[in-house]
Design a protein that fits this description.
The chain has 291 residues and is α/β, with parallel strands linked by helices. It contains eleven helices and twelve strands.
Length: 291
């Protein structure tokens, strides 16, 4: 069997509701149970699967809440490798994961068209927000993300882009394109090639603007003078999907166990569990598998 290598990164959200604080944890890869392919017997290995996922699902604390419920229902452990969505999909393309749980629908559909997934299922949603200095020198505050980016470009405002092939990075690039500014983002635009937490740290220390998933922002402690400036635009909608990796591409994929997770997470039990995950009374993810 091909060896599987863990990579670590970070991320989270809350949708079109009032803000709530989430604990910021600069944590490594979440593991529902410790896992070692070489140390456990075959039977135990058969009951452990690898999930490549976006950092927002891990860093929000959702998996710490969701996966124990799945383990109780199925007896199956899930080792999560939390990276940017693009990296998670590439990991699955290499056969280093059994199931993928990410948030870039266009990239997910491409993954499916290439034959790497069995079937894609929508699971839940949240939203993105544009963060910036409270003084808002570029005057972007409002509900229009495309208009906000046009003003940022015109003002040559400092803007930190992740530039890391994550779902958030893909969304940001889509908004720049919709603004007609894919190649003209202004002299203040900089790519960090980093995760959401580091990007927010850079923005905080330099007074820059940055696009974030709401959950990571809510969990972020080093805010400085930053605040949410653009939210509520329907373009900021952020859908999550789940797919079992196709064994026709990688025979080692544990399809029965991975499919059990997919079936459970889109079932009433799994959807109710997702809806039940709250921070200080605020729901962070909104299930929509049946919509």
């Amino acid at each position: 069997m091909k060896s599987r290598t863990s990579v670590t990164c970070h991320h989270i959200f809350k949708p079109f509701r009032a803000a709530t604080l989430v604990r910021w944890g600069l944590v490594a890869t979440l593991s529902v149970a410790s896992w070692s392919a070489g140390a456990q017997p075959a039977a135990a290995q058969a009951q452990t699967i690898v999930m490549a996922s976006t950092t927002s699902t891990e860093q929000s604390g959702l998996f710490g809440y969701l996966l124990p419920a799945f383990k109780k229902a199925s007896g199956i452990d899930i080792k999560v490798v939390a990276v940017g969505t693009g990296q998670a999909l590439d990991m699955a393309r290499r056969g280093d994961a059994d199931v993928v749980f990410v948030h870039d629908q266009a990239a997910e559909e491409k993954f499916m068209a290439e034959g790497y997934g069995i079937k894609r299922f929508p699971v839940m949603y949240n939203d993105f927000v544009l963060i910036g200095p409270a003084a808002d020198p570029a005057k972007v505050k409002g509900r229009d993300i495309v208009g906000a980016l046009k003003r940022l470009s015109a003002a040559n405002a400092s803007f930190i882009s992740r530039g890391d092939k994550s779902g958030t990075d893909a969304a940001e690039r889509r908004y720049w394109k919709q603004a007609g500014l894919a190649d003209h983002k202004g002299t203040g635009y900089k790519e960090c090639g980093c995760g959401m937490g580091p990007a927010l740290n850079i923005a905080s220390s330099t007074g820059a603007y940055v696009l974030s998933d709401r959950g990571t922002w809510l969990s972020f402690k080093n805010r400085g003078d930053l605040t949410v400036l653009v939210e509520g635009d329907t373009k900021l909608f952020n859908q999550y999907g789940v797919m079992v990796v196709n064994p026709a591409k990688h025979p080692q994929v544990k399809v029965p166990q991975a499919q059990k997770f997919v079936d459970w997470v889109i079932s009433p039990a799994g959807q109710t569990t997702i809806a039940g995950y709250k921070i200080e009374g605020q729901q962070l993810f909104f299930p929509n598998a049946t919509q």
